[in-house]
Automatic annotation (TrEMBL):
This is Fructose-1,6-bisphosphatase class 3. InterPro entries: FBPtase_class3, Metallo-depent_PP-like. It comes from the Bacteria. The keyword Hydrolase applies. It is an enzyme of class 3 (hydrolase). It catalyses: beta-D-fructose 1,6-bisphosphate + H2O = beta-D-fructose 6-phosphate + phosphate. Keywords: Carbohydrate metabolism, Hydrolase, Manganese. It holds the Pfam family FBPase_2. One of its GO terms (biological process) is gluconeogenesis. HAMAP family: FBPase_class3. One of its GO terms (molecular function) is fructose 1,6-bisphosphate 1-phosphatase activity. It comes from Companilactobacillus nantensis DSM 16982. SUPFAM superfamilies: Metallo-dependent phosphatases. Its cofactor is Mn(2+).
């Protein structure tokens, strides 16, 4: 064959393959948010395919397995390692154990074949374990019903069991099912803060997941901002870690030596009830609680001082109402705001100089410099934050939907509120684009000096026009010191109320150049009273809210699934622990609600990926001689 013909045939083969992919059903997207370092809860959602795995098992085994046996199989798929250990304790007879393994291998193979049926080969290949690839590929892709081959496959399964590879094999297939149950995960912000293992979530995504994206949340910004050199982001972050008994995360995972702040804090402060940690884990010692308490005070006071300096440096941020330290009276036991004076029962203003309340002391300065140098040089923090940066954005337009963590700031009429900074005005989409630009610029050029980028990144955390925060003020000071609920209340931007209006959803979509048939999906605010589905089903809030805040203790938040049949919102069962989930064989989903039902089954053709494929096909067609 001459070379020209050969290369033409290569191109044609590629076109045939790509055209075939266009007609496969659209992959399943899962939308989750506000994980807040709860790695077990996150893995529970992911391993269950946000409820998709149990649905698939039901579709395959309805009428063949009882509900109880379906639940057992589902639980095995979520937690194969733990469930297999239990089974080995329960089934001690060798023959019975072999039988169980053979039956189970057959069942999980049926499920993996079913979930992989809508994927092109290269995606399935990625989901299969590389060590066992040669065997799994034969059993997954082989035609098991072909009469001449049945014996061949059965013998293979028998040999896997006889060679005692059964557990390893089952585990690898279960993991493949988990991966294939969701094609892409959208993590709509707040991976970090409060919970103990945000790094485990990053690790899971980087090591075992292929398709995902982050839409950054306000808490993630604190961590990215600290790497960029923002001392304010860092002090907020340390304060929150101390508040949630999480300082170990900084030491053990990010290699931050906290000696300087712990020494300073325990010397300058005594534990006080208003700084007690917000969690009470079994095994927390009094010593640890005292350290948390004092570090929280030290970080809070340094934060309030540096915030004061930043607010004065940046009048354009319009945050003068947050200047509170200078309103504390000389007795340091009361504060006068406007006309009113409020008592401060538990103040800790011993390092505040009334003549110059926002000035930090020399000791504080030493601590801050030591810490910010460590943050900006932490290898692990660098790795994790760049991972979030590389795979994330302020907002994402994907398959016709608009995703962001918090809000697009508006006034009561729904007009986009402008932020006047850097000689320009930014509002709506341009505010999001500008925020992303500054964040990236800040991370590319880290500096520990008081620069504009660092100040702006901190503004994204708690400024009233920040798309990530979405509240009029952050009342940290009031919540620590002033026992007055009216002052402590943070008011949501009108955006959240307007989200009940369909016209508003349409306006947002238009601002982002999207068709009004798509959906807006965000997180951030826990839904206590209203439904998470709003604006005639055009807006969905997927907060994986913590059970502590939930109006119903059985509800553990919401996740959204978007597959070839449409979109459905899953109400998640409250998650208490991995062990409890395994013992109770509880499924993740409590309830489902259809958000959209596609009239026709969506295929890859109807997705952004499909658009790319079409372009590739066009380019290839042009190459044909
Ligand atoms: O309950 P805590 O730890 O004091 O945190 C409360 C603070 O967290 C915030 O709710 C922001 O966090 P979220 O993004 O999780 O809502 C602030 O508005 C509030 O001041
Ligand atoms: Mn948030």
């Amino acid at each position: 064959m001459d070379n020209e013909l050969k290369s033409n045939n290569d191109i044609k083969t590629k076109i045939v393959k790509l055209s075939a992919i266009l007609n496969l059903p659209k992959g399943t997207e899962a939308f989750i948010s506000d994980i807040h370092g709860n790695d077990d809860k996150y893995l529970n959602i992911i391993r269950s395919g946000a409820g998709n795995v149990s649905r698939k098992v039901e579709e395959v085994f309805n009428g063949r397995l009882t509900k109880l046996n379906q639940r057992k199989l589902v639980c095995l798929i979520y937690y194969p390692e733990e469930v297999l250990a239990q089974i080995h304790e329960q089934i001690t007879d060798p023959d019975e154990a072999k039988q169980w393994s053979m039956d189970t291998i057959n069942s999980v193979l049926e499920v993996v074949r079913y979930v992989s049926s809508k994927y092109p080969r290269h995606i399935i290949d990625k989901a299969l374990d590389t060590d066992l690839y040669e065997i799994t590929k034969k059993l997954v892709f082989g035609d098991l019903m072909a009469p001449d081959k049945q014996q061949y496959y059965r013998e293979m399964i028998k040999t896997v069991v006889n060679l005692k590879m059964n557990d390893e094999f089952i585990i690898s297939i279960c993991h493949a099912i988990q991966k294939l149950a969701i094609e892409r995960i959208h993590i709509i912000g707040d991976v970090y803060d409060r919970g103990r293992h945000p790094e485990a979530i990053i690790k899971h995504l980087s090591e075992s997941w292929q398709n995902f994206d982050f839409e950054w949340g306000n808490h993630d910004i604190l961590w990215m901002g600290s790497l960029a050199g923002s001392k304010l982001c860092m002090l907020n972050l340390i304060r929150i870690c101390a508040r949630y008994h999480n300082l170990k995360l900084l030491e053990n995972v990010y290699g931050i030596d906290l000696t300087s702040i712990i020494k300073f804090a325990t010397h300058a402060y005594v534990p006080m009830s208003n700084f007690e940690p917000r969690v009470n884990f079994a095994g927390m010692t009094d010593d640890e609680k005292n350290v948390d308490n004092c570090v929280q005070q030290a970080a809070a006071i340094m934060q309030f001082k540096l915030e004061g300096q930043a607010i004065k440096r940046r009048p354009e941020f319009d945050m003068n109402d947050r200047l509170l330290l200078d309103k504390v009276n000389l007795d340091k036991k009361s504060i006068t705001i406007g006309e009113k004076t409020y008592q401060i029962k538990h103040g800790c203003f011993q390092t505040v100089n009334p003549a110059s309340p926002y000035q930090i002391t020399h000791s504080e300065q030493t601590v801050i410099i030591d810490l910010i140098n460590q943050f900006t040089h932490s290898t692990q923090l660098n790795e994790h934050m760049w991972f979030m940066l590389d795979h994330g954005s302020m907002y994402l337009k994907h398959n016709g939907n608009l995703l962001f963590h918090g809000c697009i700031p508006v006034d009561k009429q729904g007009n986009f509120l402008p932020l006047h900074v850097d000689g320009q005005s930014y509002a709506g989409r341009s505010l999001c684009d500008y925020s992303e630009y500054i964040l990236k610029d800040g991370l590319r050029h880290p500096t520990t000096g008081d620069c504009y980028n660092s100040d702006f990144i901190w503004y994204l955390w708690e400024g009233k026009n920040s798309p990530l925060f979405g509240k009029d003020k952050m009342t940290t000071f009031e919540r620590y010191f002033i026992d007055e609920s009216e002052l402590q209340t943070e008011h949501l931007n009108p955006f959240f109320e307007l989200c009940n209006e369909e016209w508003f959803a349409d306006k947002l979509m238009k601002e982002f150049n999207l068709n009004s048939r798509g959906h807006i999906i965000n997180g951030h605010t826990p839904e206590f009273t209203d439904s998470p589905v709003k604006a005639n089903k055009k807006i969905v809030v997927v907060n994986g809210l913590s059970e502590i805040n939930s109006r119903d203790r059985n509800i553990g938040g919401y996740a959204l699934l978007f597959d070839s049949y449409g979109m459905r919102l899953e109400t998640l069962r409250a998650f208490r622990s991995r062990q409890e989930s395994i013992e109770e064989m509880s499924d993740v989903v409590l309830d489902k609600q259809i958000v959209e039902h596609s009239a026709e089954r969506r295929t890859v053709k109807d997705t952004d990926y499909g658009q790319n494929i079409k372009k590739q096909i066009e380019r290839l067609a042009e190459e044909l001689k």
